[in-house]
């Protein structure tokens, strides 16, 4: 690991990392990291949803014995902020996801490693000193997928996060305009040897989507198949409706992640924060519900938990921290967020995570007073 990684002076909040990262990354890599789908409406709404929620300040509370610890699927976490699964950390630093997991460990944050990492899942696990989950894209070759799950178990991962919201390549104009081209599937560190069938282009007048590709895309029956194959907890990532949450529970999943993939898949779907209450209501405490999308401030973490999330995941800011200062940058991003979250807890009268509830949210029908 390079010893040149240092946190630049003057970085005091997550947003400070974005411009610094842009200056260090190629235009193609920055477009890949920062962009969303289509016109990027959902990307903007993920932030706007947090900004429109107001908090209720409380004073003179007793915080003795307080803290941010929690248990998820039998594992202890120091705080409810995890690194979201994101692909291709090698675009940021040569050590790729190894640097990220070291940084996550430095901030005592859990991490979800992507199927599309630039180093193997085994290399990430060997470097991990923190709870580590694996994000699974179910591959068209189910035998290959089963082998991948076996590798994940053998490497000691604590949970499988199955991403279900991206069965097809989304349309990302910012990436296209910048000329970003990702590696072929079979060139990914975890997917070597996978036979790939690409449906990236269609002749004029032909259907791009319906030429056999979707015959092999994951379906609900694959979740039942997976459930039967592994004892690892399974979370589905990309659930945005109560209807899909209910179907997921019927398939025996252990947790859900409310997510619109950081606005990178279907543009103009609602913000994750706006979708969260509907999913939480439907799930009614049967399994933990996590969320991601637009979390940039400690107050955002507090708001997500007040709306019923057990924990949040953070995507782009970790990539920006990684690009700017390697593991130190990732740790700093997560540390800043945790510190801000603790300040927000104290100023809203919450001693532990169990104290965070709807009472911290200022009612919208009484904008001027409670
Ligand atoms: C560059 C990039 C790559 C991503 N790669 C993956 C991935 O491989 N698997 C996945 O499930 N989600 C992926 N995501 C989505 C994130 O897990 C997460 O849902 C999203 O980034 C959260 O929004 P935020 O970036 O506003 O925090 C990716 C996001 C970004 C920005
Ligand atoms: C079929 C979608 C593949 C996207 C892989 C990486 C990812 O999730 C992202 O860039 O976002």
TrEMBL record:
FMN binds at residues 85-87, 114, 135, 163, 237, 259, 292-296, 315-316. It comes from the Bacteria. Keywords: Flavoprotein, FMN, Oxidoreductase. Glyoxylate binds at residues 32, 137, 172, 261, 264. Its cofactor is FMN. GO terms for cellular component: cytoplasm. GO terms for molecular function: FMN binding; oxidoreductase activity. The keyword Flavoprotein applies. InterPro entries: Aldolase_TIM, Alpha-hydoxy_acid_DH_FMN, FMN-dep_DH, FMN_HAD. Residues 6-366 form the FMN hydroxy acid dehydrogenase domain. Pfam families: FMN_dh (PF01070). The active site is at 261 (proton acceptor). The keyword Acetylation does not apply. PANTHER family: 2-HYDROXYACID OXIDASE 1, S -2-HYDROXY-ACID OXIDASE-RELATED. Belongs to the FMN-dependent alpha-hydroxy acid dehydrogenase family. This is 4-hydroxymandelate oxidase.
């Amino acid at each position: 690991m390079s010893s040149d990684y240092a946190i630049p002076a003057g970085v005091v909040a997550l947003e400070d990392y974005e411009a610094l990262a842009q200056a260090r990354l190629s235009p193609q890599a920055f477009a890949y990291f920062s962009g969303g789908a289509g016109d990027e409406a959902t990307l903007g709404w993920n932030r706007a949803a947090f900004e429109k929620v107001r908090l209720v300040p409380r004073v003179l509370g007793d915080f003795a014995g307080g803290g941010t610890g929690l248990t998820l699927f039998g594992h202890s976490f120091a705080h409810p902020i995890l690194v979201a699964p994101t692909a291709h950390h090698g675009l940021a630093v040569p050590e790729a996801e190894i640097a990220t997991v070291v940084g996550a460990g430095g901030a005592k944050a859990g991490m979800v490693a992507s199927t599309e990492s630039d180093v193997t899942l085994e290399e990430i696990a060997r470097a991990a000193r923190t709870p580590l989950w694996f994000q699974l894209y179910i591959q068209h070759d189910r035998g290959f997928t089963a082998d991948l799950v076996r590798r994940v178990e053998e490497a000691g991962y604590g949970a499988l996060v199955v991403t279900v919201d991206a069965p097809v390549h989304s349309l990302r104009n910012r990436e296209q305009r910048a000329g970003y081209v990702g590696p072929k599937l079979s060139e990914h560190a975890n997917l070597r040897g996978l036979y790939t069938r690409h449906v990236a282009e269609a002749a004029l007048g032909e259907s791009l989507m319906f030429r056999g590709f979707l015959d092999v895309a994951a379906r609900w029956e694959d979740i039942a198949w997976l459930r039967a194959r592994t004892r690892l907890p399974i979370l589905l990532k990309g659930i945005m409706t109560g209807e899909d949450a209910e179907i997921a529970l019927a398939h025996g999943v252990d947790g859900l992640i409310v997510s619109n993939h950081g606005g990178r898949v279907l543009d103009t779907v609602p913000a994750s924060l706006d979708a969260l209450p509907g999913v939480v209501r439907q799930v009614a405490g049967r399994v933990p519900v996590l969320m991601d999308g637009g979390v940039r401030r400690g107050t955002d973490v507090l708001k997500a938990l007040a709306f019923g999330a057990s924990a949040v995941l953070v995507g782009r800011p970790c990539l920006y921290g990684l690009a700017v200062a390697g593991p130190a940058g990732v740790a700093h991003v997560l540390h800043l967020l945790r510190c801000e979250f603790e300040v927000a807890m104290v100023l809203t009268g919450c001693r532990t995570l169990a104290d965070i509830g709807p009472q911290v949210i200022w009612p919208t029908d009484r904008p001027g007073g409670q």
